[in-house]
Amino acid sequence: xxxxxxxxxxxxxxxxxxxxxxxxxxxxxxxxxxxxxxxxxxxxxxxxxxxxxxxxxxxxxxxxxxxxxxxxxxxxxxxxxxxxxxxxxxxxxxxxxxxxxxxxxxxxxxxxxxxxxxxxxxxxxxxxxxxxxxxxxxxxxxxxxxxxxxxxxxxxxxxxxxxxxxxxxxxxxxxxxxxxxxxxxxxxxxxxxxxxxxxxxxxxxxxxxxxxxxxxxxxxxxxxxxxxxxxxxxxxxxxxxxxxxxxxxxxxxxxxxxxxxxxxxxxxxxxxxxxxxxxxxxxxxxxxxxxxxxxxxxxxxxxxxxxxxxxxxxxxxxxxxxxxxxxxxxxxxxxxxxxxxxxxxxxxxxxxxxxxxxxxxxxxxxxxxxxxxxxxxxxxxxxxxxxxxxxxxxxxxxxxxxxxxxxxxxxxxxxxxxxxxxxxxxxxxxxxxxxxxxxxxxxxxxxxxxxxxx
Length: 454
Ligand code: NAP
Description:
single chain; alpha/beta; Aldehyde Dehydrogenase, Chain A, domain 1; 2 domains
């Protein structure tokens, strides 16, 4: 097995990258351990400089990194630029806030004084997906590096150039070799990493299948995990919503990153009195989306990242149609030789059909109608996932009432679910556990040490 970089739009092979030998992997683990002893002893204010340097480098090199993303996984170029810029924002957020987030504090107790300290834990191993190949990695790297941990990454095998470019970025920013190392390893070698005594935590962003496999291994060796898994966010539009805005935002929420986002809106529930009107405007706007070459700045929807993923999506569409689903726009490839799927809208499906339990990871939008609040809450929760939810209503009381009853990690009211450095991010149910970003993210992999003075 080797890591292979293939441009999903041109299908050109951009490079192959050999798997590490056991000996090479061993040396990298040794390095991560050695550097941990040094890095963990630095103060947070000493560590801040690295993230500031990296943020500055991203500003200067953003076109280069955005092009690597677009070439390897097909994200439309303007969205790749936005992803890279967000990484710089994240670095600056933790550079500014880490000291405060990790500040010791005092608690009442039977001792004369009790303090809580946040100390580095060790090496943190990340297994990451290709869909936001920089952002997902940065949101683990920035807080862990600030917390004094060292980091090892197993990236998705279709984005090896992204992995190498990020490693280089940190080295250029002045990181000691060993603070962050990319590992080209196979699944079996993950175990060698996880069982290493100095590896203290494992974080995976990806599918449920991969998440449970890695969590099982981590459990075998008693290592803490954070899992950021799939999602099937509901997008609920009540009768009182501003329709135009709910269509415009719905299109971004579903089709951004060619529909390959964990927090994409993946099930649309529209009140039955506005269903026809919503569907008509939606289809009209979708027809104006530009599907094509992701390097063209005018493209909104690019190729699906890999052939196997598009085949899976096409199989899901066929099964939906067999269940009675009616395609009202899209449904086929733009060109049989390309991995471009027309943005697709499907109606006439039952919101309780088991097919809705699957994640639709591509530009496909199932549209359902509902009669009342209780019914739509039931439909929204009738799903294994619990990542995010979007609620559109002009009644603030209704918005709060519904938000309370929806089982997800995030709710967006009259807007779309998105992540920000300063807000906790994560899911419940099959979407995983633990939180990334904000003060919660930086405290996932630290030793929360209680110190009593008697
Ligand atoms: P994936 O196929 O599960 O892969 C994720 C990572 O896990 C890749 O690095 C993959 O390596 C690795 N992996 C898979 N099976 C493994 C095993 N048995 N042992 C060790 N490593 C293993 O997911 P993906 O297709 O890259 O990403 C899409 C999924 O990620 C979607 O479900 C999406 O919703 C989810 N996601 C969640 C969030 C969130 O924050 N909740 C964010 C982004 C994406 P290979 O590439 O080598 O197979």
